[in-house]
Amino acid sequence: MRGGWTLTKRLHEPRGPSVVQPLTGMSIVLSKEQLPDSRDRETFCSHPLRACVQYVNSTRPLPPLTYAFSVGAETGLPTPNVTCFDDSTLSIRGYVSNPGMLYEVLARAEAPGGATTCSAVPGSSPNATLSVYGASEAWITWVGDTNYDMTAGNTAVNHSFQGPDPHNNLISLLASANLKSTDYDYILAEHIADYQSIMGPFSLSLGQIPDFSTPTDQIVASYQANVGNPYLEWLTFNYGRYLLTSSARGTLPANLQGKWADGWSNAWSAGKR
Length: 273
Known about the structure:
Elements lengths: L4 E8 L5 E6 L15 E8 L4 E8 L6 E5 L11 E6 L2 E7 L6 E9 L4 E6 L7 E6 L3 E10 L20 H8 L9 H16 L16 H6 L8 H17 L27
Antiparallel strand pairs: 1-2, 1-5, 3-4, 4-11, 5-10, 6-7, 7-8, 8-11, 9-10
Protein backbone atom coordinates (compact mmCIF):
# COMPACT_ATOMS: atom_id res chain seq x y z
CA MET A 1 0.00 0.00 0.00
CA ARG A 2 1.14 3.55 -0.61
CA GLY A 3 0.15 4.95 2.74
CA GLY A 4 1.12 3.51 6.06
CA TRP A 5 3.02 4.21 9.19
CA THR A 6 5.01 7.36 9.73
CA LEU A 7 7.48 7.48 12.57
CA THR A 8 8.15 11.07 13.63
CA LYS A 9 11.23 11.61 15.79
CA ARG A 10 11.77 14.77 17.79
CA LEU A 11 15.36 15.29 18.85
CA HIS A 12 16.45 18.28 20.93
CA GLU A 13 19.97 19.22 19.95
CA PRO A 14 22.08 21.42 22.26
CA ARG A 15 22.98 23.93 19.54
CA GLY A 16 19.58 24.60 18.06
CA PRO A 17 15.82 24.07 18.20
CA SER A 18 14.15 20.68 18.15
CA VAL A 19 14.38 18.77 14.90
CA VAL A 20 11.19 17.19 13.59
CA GLN A 21 11.78 14.59 10.89
CA PRO A 22 8.88 12.64 9.36
CA LEU A 23 9.91 9.09 8.52
CA THR A 24 7.46 7.62 6.05
CA GLY A 25 6.59 4.10 4.94
CA MET A 26 6.57 0.74 6.67
CA SER A 27 10.18 0.89 7.84
CA ILE A 28 12.02 2.99 10.39
CA VAL A 29 14.81 5.13 8.96
CA LEU A 30 16.92 6.88 11.58
CA SER A 31 20.18 8.45 10.47
CA LYS A 32 23.50 7.96 12.25
CA GLU A 33 23.63 11.64 13.15
CA GLN A 34 20.25 11.56 14.88
CA LEU A 35 20.61 8.55 17.16
CA PRO A 36 23.19 7.29 19.66
CA ASP A 37 26.17 5.44 18.20
CA SER A 38 24.77 1.90 18.36
CA ARG A 39 21.27 1.22 17.06
CA ASP A 40 19.26 -1.47 15.24
CA ARG A 41 16.26 -1.19 12.94
CA GLU A 42 14.14 -4.13 11.81
CA THR A 43 10.77 -4.61 10.12
CA PHE A 44 9.08 -7.92 9.32
CA CYS A 45 5.70 -9.60 8.97
CA SER A 46 5.40 -12.93 10.77
CA HIS A 47 3.19 -15.89 9.89
CA PRO A 48 3.30 -17.40 13.41
CA LEU A 49 2.30 -14.05 14.90
CA ARG A 50 -0.14 -13.18 12.10
CA ALA A 51 1.22 -9.67 12.60
CA CYS A 52 3.82 -7.18 11.38
CA VAL A 53 6.49 -5.69 13.63
CA GLN A 54 8.60 -2.54 13.35
CA TYR A 55 11.51 -2.33 15.82
CA VAL A 56 14.21 0.15 16.84
CA ASN A 57 16.71 0.11 19.70
CA SER A 58 19.81 1.87 21.00
CA THR A 59 22.49 1.38 23.63
CA ARG A 60 21.23 4.62 25.21
CA PRO A 61 17.68 5.93 25.71
CA LEU A 62 15.91 6.69 22.46
CA PRO A 63 14.58 10.18 21.82
CA PRO A 64 10.79 10.52 22.08
CA LEU A 65 9.06 8.63 19.23
CA THR A 66 5.64 9.27 17.74
CA TYR A 67 3.85 6.69 15.61
CA ALA A 68 1.18 8.03 13.26
CA PHE A 69 -0.89 6.46 10.51
CA SER A 70 -1.15 8.25 7.17
CA VAL A 71 -4.87 8.67 6.51
CA GLY A 72 -4.25 9.49 2.84
CA ALA A 73 -3.23 5.93 2.01
CA GLU A 74 -4.72 5.52 -1.47
CA THR A 75 -6.34 7.93 -3.92
CA GLY A 76 -10.09 7.44 -3.75
CA LEU A 77 -9.98 5.40 -0.53
CA PRO A 78 -12.38 6.80 2.10
CA THR A 79 -10.54 8.32 5.07
CA PRO A 80 -10.44 5.84 7.98
CA ASN A 81 -11.14 6.61 11.61
CA VAL A 82 -7.93 6.51 13.66
CA THR A 83 -8.66 6.39 17.39
CA CYS A 84 -7.08 5.34 20.68
CA PHE A 85 -8.13 1.82 21.63
CA ASP A 86 -6.10 2.15 24.85
CA ASP A 87 -2.96 3.95 26.06
CA SER A 88 -0.68 1.86 23.84
CA THR A 89 -2.92 0.84 20.92
CA LEU A 90 -4.33 2.59 17.86
CA SER A 91 -7.44 1.43 16.02
CA ILE A 92 -7.70 2.18 12.29
CA ARG A 93 -11.14 1.38 10.85
CA GLY A 94 -12.48 2.18 7.41
CA TYR A 95 -14.05 0.99 4.18
CA VAL A 96 -12.42 0.40 0.80
CA SER A 97 -15.40 2.11 -0.87
CA ASN A 98 -18.84 3.35 0.07
CA PRO A 99 -20.47 0.92 0.55
CA GLY A 100 -17.66 -1.60 0.57
CA MET A 101 -15.47 -3.99 2.52
CA LEU A 102 -14.80 -3.07 6.15
CA TYR A 103 -11.23 -3.30 7.43
CA GLU A 104 -9.53 -2.69 10.74
CA VAL A 105 -5.93 -2.50 11.95
CA LEU A 106 -4.92 -2.58 15.62
CA ALA A 107 -1.40 -1.28 16.28
CA ARG A 108 0.20 -1.63 19.72
CA ALA A 109 3.45 0.00 20.85
CA GLU A 110 5.79 -1.78 23.28
CA ALA A 111 8.54 0.08 25.15
CA PRO A 112 10.20 -2.01 27.90
CA GLY A 113 11.49 0.33 30.58
CA GLY A 114 9.69 3.29 29.02
CA ALA A 115 6.18 4.69 28.72
CA THR A 116 3.58 4.78 25.95
CA THR A 117 0.67 7.18 25.51
CA CYS A 118 -2.07 7.58 22.92
CA SER A 119 -3.41 11.03 22.08
CA ALA A 120 -6.21 12.29 19.87
CA VAL A 121 -5.24 14.70 17.08
CA PRO A 122 -7.60 17.66 16.57
CA GLY A 123 -9.19 17.82 13.15
CA SER A 124 -12.25 17.09 11.06
CA SER A 125 -11.64 13.32 10.91
CA PRO A 126 -10.92 11.13 13.95
CA ASN A 127 -7.15 10.78 14.22
CA ALA A 128 -4.67 9.80 16.94
CA THR A 129 -0.99 9.05 17.51
CA LEU A 130 1.10 6.82 19.79
CA SER A 131 4.10 8.23 21.66
CA VAL A 132 7.01 6.44 23.34
CA TYR A 133 9.23 7.98 26.01
CA GLY A 134 12.26 6.90 28.02
CA ALA A 135 12.94 3.57 26.33
CA SER A 136 16.13 2.06 24.92
CA GLU A 137 14.10 -0.14 22.58
CA ALA A 138 10.60 0.07 21.17
CA TRP A 139 8.47 -1.73 18.64
CA ILE A 140 5.02 -1.42 17.17
CA THR A 141 3.03 -4.53 16.29
CA TRP A 142 0.00 -4.35 14.05
CA VAL A 143 -2.65 -6.90 13.10
CA GLY A 144 -5.30 -6.41 10.45
CA ASP A 145 -8.37 -8.09 9.01
CA THR A 146 -11.50 -7.42 6.95
CA ASN A 147 -15.09 -8.61 6.88
CA TYR A 148 -14.54 -10.34 3.53
CA ASP A 149 -15.86 -13.93 3.50
CA MET A 150 -15.23 -15.98 0.37
CA THR A 151 -17.84 -18.54 1.45
CA ALA A 152 -20.59 -15.87 1.37
CA GLY A 153 -20.79 -15.84 -2.42
CA ASN A 154 -24.07 -17.66 -2.86
CA THR A 155 -27.75 -16.84 -3.23
CA ALA A 156 -28.45 -17.59 0.47
CA VAL A 157 -26.56 -14.42 1.42
CA ASN A 158 -27.26 -12.51 -1.78
CA HIS A 159 -23.65 -12.93 -2.95
CA SER A 160 -22.55 -10.36 -0.40
CA PHE A 161 -19.14 -11.91 0.39
CA GLN A 162 -19.62 -10.22 3.74
CA GLY A 163 -18.58 -11.85 7.00
CA PRO A 164 -18.46 -10.67 10.63
CA ASP A 165 -16.82 -7.50 11.85
CA PRO A 166 -13.07 -8.26 12.21
CA HIS A 167 -12.70 -6.41 15.54
CA ASN A 168 -13.15 -9.33 17.93
CA ASN A 169 -10.75 -11.48 15.93
CA LEU A 170 -8.07 -8.77 16.14
CA ILE A 171 -8.55 -8.40 19.89
CA SER A 172 -7.97 -12.15 20.25
CA LEU A 173 -4.82 -11.92 18.12
CA LEU A 174 -3.33 -9.14 20.25
CA ALA A 175 -4.17 -11.11 23.38
CA SER A 176 -2.49 -14.29 22.10
CA ALA A 177 0.48 -15.66 24.02
CA ASN A 178 2.95 -14.88 21.23
CA LEU A 179 2.00 -11.22 20.92
CA LYS A 180 1.81 -10.70 24.68
CA SER A 181 5.53 -11.39 24.95
CA THR A 182 7.59 -8.39 26.01
CA ASP A 183 10.79 -10.03 24.74
CA TYR A 184 11.52 -8.84 21.21
CA ASP A 185 14.26 -11.43 20.67
CA TYR A 186 11.71 -14.20 21.25
CA ILE A 187 9.30 -12.68 18.72
CA LEU A 188 12.03 -12.35 16.09
CA ALA A 189 13.43 -15.84 16.72
CA GLU A 190 9.99 -17.39 16.20
CA HIS A 191 9.60 -15.57 12.89
CA ILE A 192 13.07 -16.64 11.67
CA ALA A 193 12.45 -20.26 12.64
CA ASP A 194 9.21 -20.32 10.66
CA TYR A 195 10.84 -18.73 7.60
CA GLN A 196 13.81 -21.11 7.70
CA SER A 197 11.50 -24.12 7.96
CA ILE A 198 10.35 -23.31 4.42
CA MET A 199 13.48 -21.88 2.84
CA GLY A 200 16.02 -24.09 4.59
CA PRO A 201 15.34 -27.62 3.24
CA PHE A 202 16.29 -26.65 -0.34
CA SER A 203 19.13 -24.69 -1.91
CA LEU A 204 20.33 -24.12 -5.48
CA SER A 205 23.89 -23.61 -6.67
CA LEU A 206 24.67 -22.49 -10.23
CA GLY A 207 28.32 -21.79 -9.59
CA GLN A 208 27.41 -18.16 -8.97
CA ILE A 209 29.91 -15.60 -7.76
CA PRO A 210 28.10 -12.89 -5.73
CA ASP A 211 28.53 -9.37 -7.09
CA PHE A 212 27.85 -6.91 -4.27
CA SER A 213 29.65 -3.99 -5.91
CA THR A 214 27.30 -3.57 -8.90
CA PRO A 215 23.72 -2.26 -8.43
CA THR A 216 21.13 -4.92 -9.26
CA ASP A 217 19.44 -2.81 -11.95
CA GLN A 218 22.76 -2.56 -13.79
CA ILE A 219 23.24 -6.32 -13.57
CA VAL A 220 19.76 -6.83 -15.02
CA ALA A 221 20.33 -4.26 -17.79
CA SER A 222 23.57 -5.96 -18.87
CA TYR A 223 22.12 -9.48 -18.92
CA GLN A 224 22.42 -11.32 -22.26
CA ALA A 225 20.28 -14.41 -22.74
CA ASN A 226 22.83 -16.11 -25.00
CA VAL A 227 25.57 -15.55 -22.41
CA GLY A 228 23.78 -15.76 -19.06
CA ASN A 229 24.80 -14.67 -15.61
CA PRO A 230 24.73 -17.42 -12.96
CA TYR A 231 24.63 -14.88 -10.14
CA LEU A 232 21.58 -13.01 -11.53
CA GLU A 233 19.81 -16.28 -12.36
CA TRP A 234 20.49 -17.59 -8.86
CA LEU A 235 19.37 -14.30 -7.33
CA THR A 236 16.14 -14.21 -9.38
CA PHE A 237 15.30 -17.79 -8.47
CA ASN A 238 15.73 -17.14 -4.77
CA TYR A 239 13.85 -13.84 -4.99
CA GLY A 240 10.89 -15.74 -6.44
CA ARG A 241 11.04 -18.21 -3.54
CA TYR A 242 11.22 -15.29 -1.11
CA LEU A 243 8.10 -13.66 -2.61
CA LEU A 244 6.09 -16.87 -2.46
CA THR A 245 7.26 -17.74 1.06
CA SER A 246 6.37 -14.23 2.19
CA SER A 247 2.87 -14.35 0.69
CA ALA A 248 -0.15 -14.96 2.90
CA ARG A 249 -0.81 -18.63 3.61
CA GLY A 250 -4.34 -19.92 3.68
CA THR A 251 -7.23 -20.66 1.34
CA LEU A 252 -6.44 -18.30 -1.52
CA PRO A 253 -3.31 -18.67 -3.68
CA ALA A 254 -0.79 -15.84 -3.98
CA ASN A 255 -1.44 -13.28 -6.71
CA LEU A 256 0.60 -13.52 -9.90
CA GLN A 257 3.88 -11.68 -9.32
CA GLY A 258 6.74 -10.52 -11.48
CA LYS A 259 6.85 -8.30 -14.56
CA TRP A 260 3.10 -8.81 -15.11
CA ALA A 261 2.25 -7.40 -11.69
CA ASP A 262 5.07 -5.19 -10.47
CA GLY A 263 2.94 -2.35 -9.04
CA TRP A 264 0.41 -1.72 -6.29
CA SER A 265 -2.39 -3.26 -8.36
CA ASN A 266 -2.76 -4.88 -11.78
CA ALA A 267 -4.97 -5.08 -14.85
CA TRP A 268 -7.21 -7.87 -13.50
CA SER A 269 -7.83 -6.20 -10.08
CA ALA A 270 -6.20 -8.97 -8.04
CA GLY A 271 -4.54 -6.30 -5.90
CA LYS A 272 -7.97 -5.24 -4.66
CA ARG A 273 -8.78 -8.62 -3.12
